[in-house]
Amino acid sequence: MERIPYNPQEAKIIDHIPGYRPWMPPIPVFSPVVTPRENFLAFLRGEDPLWMPSSWDLKRFDPRIIPDNVAKGMVSDDRPFDPAKEGGGKDWFGIPWVYDAKARGSLVDPKAHPVEDINDWESYVTLPDPDSPDWEGCAAANRERLQDGKLTQMTVFSGLFERLMSFMGMTDAMVALIDDDQKEGVHRLFDYLCGFYDQLFERFKKYFDCDAVWFHDDWGSERAPFCSPATYREMIVPYLKRIVSSCHKHGMFFEFHCCGKNEMLVPLMIECGVDTWHGQDMNDKVKLYEQYGDRIKLGIAPLGRRNTDMAATPMTDEDSREAFRLLLKTFDKGNVWMGMFMGASPNASQVLYEESRLAYEKEYPRR
After folding, report:
1. 248 band by pLDDT with thresholds 50, 70 and 90
2. How many domains does the chain divide into?
């Protein structure tokens, strides 16, 4: 991207917009030298951005016409959505979910036992029709929102393993990944999901000109992955590779949402072609950056402070400035972006813009 000298007026706050979830604080609006979307896309393409992209530079567009979004209580579109009143219900496959307002998330209805035999999963669920939502009507209603100058990112809230868990429950899903008598059913489900997600991606691009997909599939606990790398390689990697390829085929980038301490699985993500992974703060981002920073774009957050700590003691703008300067010094070769983190100061996005804009003006091009 062409270098443009920094002007402090770029970072002057001119307005605020709502956070993309009801409980999130307003986001400052200022006048960057190019649109956040242009800058973010340059970064994702491997070009030199003008400032460090961040989650403030994108919008999560998760319309209510998609059953999974309502079931998970995660709707973000043209109309206000109250997850406590509207969240929950059946997902794409007819699986019932219950929204918990305190946890700000949904679980499969504990009274339901959706799939008793994974080898016959088709008999227990409703196969979704990707043409059932009113894609055209939704695109028309959200036209202004979709042209706000930010990167448009749409979400798949249940990927491969998470979809399997929604069918069977956590314990039975983990057993099914290693039980030779159940593997055939799992493979058949994952093969089906590859085709289904390909159809969704086609519609994400056609109707909303989506730039990136946020694909959820948690692989680990706070201490380690749920399964061995060998199990993931056998049961999930071939299908995730197809899904990433499908996303790229439709002209979108692939962000992997994968909770857990999954450092040892990053090579598998790279093998699948994942463009970026944020990961939680129990993962050593500095080490991962040194090992893999040239092959995958990493989402980062302030160093040395866990999300839980920052939620209890939010950062001030001056805290943010100090933290962002440390990040820019630590991750000095670029290829990182600022992901969402708890406890951010009110004007953190403005501070990040100022600090990274100045740093990148001095340092880039660096490759």
Report:
1. very high
2. 1
